[in-house]
Amino acid sequence: MNDNNTVENNAVEDLGDLLKVRREKLKDLCERNLNPYEVTVYDQTAFAQVITDNFDEYEGKEVSIAGRIMSKRDMGKASFIDIQDTTGRIQSYVRKDHVGDDSYVDFKKYDIGDIIGIRGEVFRTQKGQISVKASAVKLLSKSLLPLPEKFHGLKDMDLRYRQRYIDLIVNPEVKDTFIKRSKIIKEIRNYLDDNNFLEVETPVLQTVAGGAAARPFNTHHNTLDLDMHLRISLELYLKRLIVGGFDRVYEIGRVFRNEGMSVRHNPEFTLLELYQAYTDYEGMMNLTENLIKHVADKVIGTKVVQYGEYEIDLEKPFERLTMIEAVKKYANVDFSTIETVEQAKALAQEHHIEFEDRHMKGDILNLFFEEYVEEHLIQPTFIMEHPVEISPLAKRKPTDPGYTERFELFILGREHANAFSELNDPIDQRERFVHQVELKNAGDDEASDMDEDFLNALEYGMPPTGGLGIGIDRLVMLLTNNNTIRDVLLFPTMKPEIK
Question: Taking all residues of the chain, what is their mean pLDDT, rounded to a whole number?
């Protein structure tokens, strides 16, 4: 047996001994009618960070705090411990003659990770540490598993995502990310509510998976004997509401796409979609820019965001380029001079860009954009006027019907928002759905199905409308300086462990 195996085996044996000791401690408590799991209520009157931030108000006052023991320093007849609650950590001074002999004997057996309640007086130690001088200590829950000492040093980093509860306990910055995530969503709602948008809920289970180019998760409703899909988008039901007379609607909800996983992609993610009648994609651009600036200012207190090596300036106006202008700028290829699909394919071959036989001129323009442009779009940039081939739900440009009134917002080389002047011509929409069905029959499993009910709604008349979708997870990544989507999802999708 090599040295590494010996160390690992010894570690397993040591862990086994620790688990045994903790269970024996629990057994002893139960035999003395002190089962900590039977405690139902503890009167928590103060919190760690609140006490620390407002020491002058709390000094000399009695408080009851509760939380998890994160460290212990035994000094014989007295001990110092650090207690972590939902707001942060605070020190407690536990002395034998303050809490009583029997209570102190039990306290000495408490382990790091145990959840306790402490009642006592707020004071500052001789070394200046704000603390709670305990007059009573109560065990509220026994921890049977030891906390990892150096969590980031674990070999299996996936454990942080699989066991997020441990990650949150030992890494305060992780908890801060999810507090910010909650605040980001709250400020999005505040902004939209203040601008007269109505928050709604639409079906997660749908008979037609539409509104995006994505492969759905499929399921079956037994009672109705009906094949259904988890939604890939919020779009088509929200637009039905515009037809019905709600002029401004939005939804923040989970969508599901049966696709690959990466630092930017998780099979389920959170999407904001909103629709506003009597405006267009220009109105959506202004709303998007103002919304993101508002959220950054309210949640992180600045519109200049540090992300890795980059300083992202949300303060100045976002750059605006058409897709043709962007490809010309970064690839030195001018698609405004390309008239036929044959010319586009020849150009793609010349630049070693792979394409499929079904691809049209607009598809190939998009392939050039993905190959040459995206990685350069670090600062906020609106890319406008996508080709109609890749925009089945967007209104055509009246002056150039091969392109659409659509934009995507790129920051850090990745898409953060997608919007367009919504197609409200039912005849044109049907033709585009027919094209999508043809693509699906030809093997494109991300193409849309025909949605007859949505077409029926359009035939009743939908006003001119602007629509917008923003990926909440990517916005949280940007505003919390996290480089993978797993770091901003509490419970990301993981492959099951093989035991």
Answer: 93
